[in-house]
Structure prediction request, 380 residues.
Amino acid sequence: MRKPSLLDNIPRAGTADLETFRREHLETQRPGIFTGLYAGQPIDRIRTTADARRELGDLEFPINPDYYSTRVRGRANESQVCTLATYLDLAASNPDLDLLCTEFRMPAKMRATFQPPNFLALGVKGRPKVMMYTAKQGLFAPLHFDGDHRQVLFTQVFGRKRVMLFPPRAAEQFKPTGIDSDLAVQDLTDAGKRRFLVKHGGFECVLAPGETLFIPKLWWHYLDNLETAMSFGVRFHLSPYDWLLSMLEPDYRLQEVAGRLTSPDGRRLVDPDTFADLLAPRLGGGPLRARARAYERALRRAYTGRGEVAAAAQALARPASHAEVARFGDYLRRAGHPAAEFARALRFFRIARTPDRWSRLDLRVLNFYFRVFRAKGGLL
Ligand SMILES: [Fe+2]
Prediction:
């Protein structure tokens, strides 16, 4: 039976032009579904398993257990190589098959069947990374984010796939370890998945052959193969800034912070202070352990700083009562903000609230807090 979409809340932009993609998806980091990105190219002729057998039957790739079993639950990651034709035979004849092509650099034979979409011209100049995926009906990719920090144009070749996406800020709720989540989303019923999506501000669609989903960088994703399916992802080239960040240990806090340090197109560094804070301990000299501790402190500062300040900004987004003003002080004190962090908080306010909307009350609140912080032991 064909499973319906759960939320179907990702806009279908059809054959969007470059400007629409830039304005409504890349700059705002919002997902979208596109069609016709490969129109007229050989890859576009493959829409069914029969087409794939004919065109790519002898394509070789490795198959493994899913990432949840190996990375989260510690199952041995035994790999074997097979052809696409063999895998389709196995998938059709063996209902217990639990091996899939989790991710594989696309072989030249398949890579030669298309040109990367022109959307990539809006990112950093350079060669994209192209990965392919093949899985039997019922297998899944567990909830995770991509540690390479790249934006992805994810295309369905044959078979339908349910894709769930979550913005980085949801990570804290996902029991994250590295790039993985300890939550077994695959074990939820459809109703449970729907509740999970709604609870964490998720997006969901069922991707059909010929459709391409834009996955913004560092977003969490979970994928269900509703039918035996093949997909591929064209991954934007990285700027040196994003590349350096991707070299740090994968961590959900870094993931949350990193997405805001560079511009959405990856070309500019928008928060050089925090970027330098994070990179300095790694690039500088000194004992390894001291540098690791300094990095952890910088990461904690950047992460809690953003969360707390965002919450404080929300509290002050409307005329503040004394209680709300007091809460702002609590946020900063609880997080143990040093002077630099408080200065950063103020800069955040100046960015978050356009200067012409600053009221006399805003100024009084800030002046009040300058006085409180001075009185509380020379923080400023
Ligand atoms: Fe992924």
